[in-house]
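To close the section, here is one more complete example, presented without commentary so you can practise reading it yourself. The ligand is nicotinamide-adenine-dinucleotide.
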Amino acid sequence: MIMKILVTGNAGFIGFHLVKKLVNSGHEIVGLDNINNYYDIDLKFGRLEQTGIDSKNLGYNRFVQSNEYMDYRFIKLNIEDRGNIENLFETEGFDVVCHLAAQAGVRYSLKDPHTYIQSNIVGFMNILEGCRHNNIKHLVYASSSSVYGLNTKMPFSTQDNVDHPVSLYAASKKSNELMAHTYSHLYGIPTTGLRFFTVYGPWGRPDMAYFKFTKAIIEDRSIDVYNYGNMERDFTYVDDVVAGIIKIIGSEPPEGNNEWYSEEPVPSISKAPYRIYNIGNNRPVNLMDFIGAVEKATGKEVKKELQAYATR
Ligand SMILES: NC(=O)c1ccc[n+]([C@@H]2O[C@H](COP(=O)([O-])OP(=O)(O)OC[C@H]3O[C@@H](n4cnc5c(N)ncnc54)[C@H](O)[C@@H]3O)[C@@H](O)[C@H]2O)c1
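Output:
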């Protein structure tokens, strides 16, 4: 079935790869991003250029047609901009919304917590309202493995409760899941939340450890190793994440699940059309092995500053 799909955050890492796969697939694609300067905007422009969007021709709240793909347009817009988001949803009539725009990053949420509330809560609210009033058939949105917070039971399971976040970023993502459930329940909007686990790959985010470590090694600087190196992380290659998203977009949206019992409420499903998936985990890599791999690839050893602080 041919669909009109809104992909938010598509000047970003995962959104860019998703759009690159979706164009030419028969669907009509609208990409949206405010191109904020959380990291180098030239990287965002470069991603847009890869899909035929002329980054010199961008204006706020104005569509730019891809010069490579007929079925793809981009709009520079802030999801916090309620009026223009309302207008966009009304005029475009999307079938599916894939919402990836967010203030990402765990560490940065200590430095600038307000942006997380603005982009991830206020912005998400505007997306939900757009879905509510415009008969969206499926809202797929990015959550994060960060929601597992203090949980130590492995592997992380969507069946476990995630009520102990350890960063405002994680709290904002958990809030998105709660908000989505409310809208699925109240208005019957089918929603699927995807918990991503440290995604890596080309055109990746420079704030992520593999870029920061590599840069430090090349520049002969030391690196901070959190929790004395005693940490494990799951990594997912971006193409695998994109394959997961496309599979979900192409399959039936969730329906209310009759096997959900209010007396024993499993967190990942509901009697409302709501579900949560982990996208790619269960093969954790030890932090020191990870650093060793970067050392091997660069042919250099790095000085490690062991820190007590742990992120998630
Ligand atoms: N990359 C990962 O490892 C990872 C892991 C877990 C969850 N996630 C989630 O996946 C999604 C995509 O992550 P990413 O790695 O591509 O991040 P990214 O920062 O590269 O992409 C996010 C994009 O959203 C845009 N954006 C932010 N706030 C916006 C706003 N208010 N209005 C419009 N656009 C806005 C940014 O400009 C950026 O281009 C995010 O929701 C993130 O929280 C990512």
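Once you have examined the tokens, check your reading against these statements. Residues 171 and 219 are 35 Å apart (CA to CA). Residues 9, 11-15, 33-36, 44, 78-80, 100-104, 119, 123, 142, 144, 196, 198-199, 205 surround nicotinamide-adenine-dinucleotide (CB under 6 Å).
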